[in-house]
Amino acid sequence: MNKVILMGRLTRDPEIRYSNGENALAIARFTLAVDRRFNRREDQTADFITCKAFGKQAEFAERFLRQGIKIAGCGRIETGSYTNRDGQKVYTTEVIFDEIEFAESKAASDASRGGSGMSGGYQSAPAPSPMNAAGDGFMNIPDGIDEELPFK
């Protein structure tokens, strides 16, 4: 079984491309900074994982994901290789997401992106508490997302 579940923050805005042809397919590429759960030292460390999404998930990424936003996703690991210009074989590993969702409230996301200085390196935001969550404690759903929902 090849199944991956990740939660982390985007290190930059997703890069979106569209395939050629009559039925162009959206392709999103981004990197997630994922905290390491167990660390013998007290230093916070993260793994930076290359991720891709296709179709509706890529369109979702294009519309709603930005640097610093915390997301959770399910997918699979895909490995590959190619020969670079110097004739050396390069091996690749990336996660292909089938599902992506927000992993924190909008208020917590805005707070962590606003003054955190993401350009200076990876920083994690504290978990949102009910007191500083938006309104009723749930994240506000962005306008226009109801067309993406599988139910109405």
Task: Briefly summarize what is shown.
This protein is mainly β. It has two helices and six strands, in the order ββββαββα.
Write the layout of secondary structure elements.
Elements: E1 4-10, E2 15-18, E3 26-35, E4 46-54, H1 56-64, E5 70-83, E6 89-102, H2 106-114
Parallel strand pairs: 4-6
Antiparallel strand pairs: 1-3, 1-5, 2-3, 3-4, 5-6
Structural notes for this entry:
There is one protein chain. The protein has one domain: Nucleic acid-binding proteins (OB fold (Dihydrolipoamide Acetyltransferase, E2P), Beta Barrel), CATH 2.40.50.140. The chain is about 10% helix and about 40% strand. It has a 5-stranded mixed barrel with strand order 1-3-4-6-5. Strand 2 and strand 3 form a beta hairpin. The two termini are about 35 Å apart.
Q: What kind of sheet is the major sheet?
A: 5 strands, mixed, barrel
Q: What CATH architecture label applies?
A: Beta Barrel
Major β-sheet strand ordering: 1-3-4-6-5
Class per helix and strand makeup: mainly beta
Task: Indicate the radius of gyration in whole angstroms.
Answer: 17 Å
CATH class: Mainly Beta
Tell me the number of strands.
6
Low-confidence runs: 115-133
Question: How much helix, percentage-wise, in residues?
Answer: 10-25%
* Share of β-strand residues: 35-45%
End-to-end separation in angstroms reads 33 Å
Number of domains: 1
- Annotation field: number of helices: 2
Order of helices and strands: EEEEHEEH
- Within CATH, the superfamily carries the name Nucleic acid-binding proteins
CATH topology: OB fold (Dihydrolipoamide Acetyltransferase, E2P)
Mean pLDDT across all amino acids: 81
